[in-house]
Amino acid sequence: MGAYEAEEGPAGRAEPGPPAPEAGLTTGALARRLGVSPTTLRSWDRRYGIGPAVRADGRHRRWTPQDVAMLEMMCRLTSAGVPPAEAARAAKEGAGVPEGTPAVRPDGREPAAAVPSRAAGTLPLGDVRQECRGLARAAVRLDSAALHEQLEAAVAEHGLAVAWHEVMVPTLHAVGRKWASSGDRYVEVEHLLSWHVSTTLRRCTRPPAAADDATGVGPVVLACVPGEQHTLPLEALHAGLSELRVPTRMFGAAVPAEALTSAVRRLGPAAVVLWAQARSSASPPLAQHIAATEWGVRGARSQPLVLLGGPGWAGRPTRGMARPTSLREALDTLDGIHRVATQSESR
User: Fold this and answer.
1) What is the pLDDT of residues 154-204, one digit of tens each?
2) Neighbours of 206 (CB within 10 A)
3) Domains in the chain and their CATH numbers?
4) Strands 54-56, 14-15: parallel, antiparallel or unpaired by DSSP?
5) Fewest C-beta atoms under 10 Å: which of 16, 113, 255, 268?
6) b/e for 35-58, b at 16 or more Cβ within 10 A?
């Protein structure tokens, strides 16, 4: 009698034997392990026949260790720039080959598409969260669906501040280093990853409420200094402040000095955050000018607190201005300023 066939019970009735063990990973679990979207796995199965050997109930995919090895090779090859169709052929031929060894054809010859695991498409990430590796692989493959799903999952699981510092930033830095060391290669990878990070941050940003302006407390002004185009850190701060219900005005990239001064005078902000990624764009005179900008009636003039964000301010004279070193520190500082101003206004 087969191991999983029905057995006869004491009364002669057929009783179910022990259930069959799980055939392997589900599509969702494998997608998380590989850093791809479930949609991508289904597409590879449909287009290239690189699917699971076992399907539970004839429908649900279950991926065996051999399937996983095949998909890992597929991911390495596509990350190295091999076209998916060629990568699928090589992965199917080399399924079960240990990582780092070339795939071998049945006749003993190495397929042209096979590459070592440390392919040109991998990114040097170092000691980071596992989510960073999956995100980096998805970025190199230009896999929008996987990027979207993994970024959303990181924020949902860890919260905005941790997802920013421990998932988004390390991956962005790794892509930037790869770009810098590879000439013009990987520019498209950085652009796609940046776009999806920005999209995720904006999706996390609560819409402004009319009640925010009814308190009489000035908002927090967020602006990049003139010539500065890197807005992602400000977008993360904007999203975090919206979660705390701190009113903001986001002006984005490369705000002209005159426009920034005008906005400060018109809004009477509780604080102004000036972001400078590069030392060449960080201007202490501009920061001092904004800090000295006044508004209000004579005898009751007010000035904003200026926070300087970004590596561009390192080594620059910033006396009397705050220099938060992390998103969490900036959020705590600005939330505290808003609370104190709100309490003062209510007295």
Assistant:
1) 999 899 999 999 999 999 988 887 766 666 677 888 899 999 999 999 999
2) 12
3) 20-120 (1.10.1660.10), 130-204 (1.10.1240.10), 211-346 (3.40.50.280)
4) unpaired
5) 16
6) bbbbebbeebbeebebbbeeeeee
- Identify whether the C-beta of residue 251 lies closer than 8 Å to the C-beta of residue 222: yes
Tokens of 196: 């999806």
d(CA 213, CA 82): 54
Residue 30's contacts (CB-CB under 8 Å, 6 or more residues apart) are 41, 63, 67, 68, 71
Predicted confidence at residue 313, as pLDDT, reads 93
What SS3 state is found at 118?
Answer: coil
**DSSP alpha helix (H) spans, 218-281:** 232-243, 257-267
Beta bridge partners, 15, equal: 7
Distance CA 238, CA 241 (A): 5
Predicted structure pTM score: 0.68
Backbone dihedral angles phi then psi of residue 171, each to the nearest 5 degrees: -70, -40
Q: What is d(CA 264, CA 290) in angstroms, rounded to the nearest whole number?
A: 8
Residues 146, 38: Cα–Cα separation, whole Å: 8
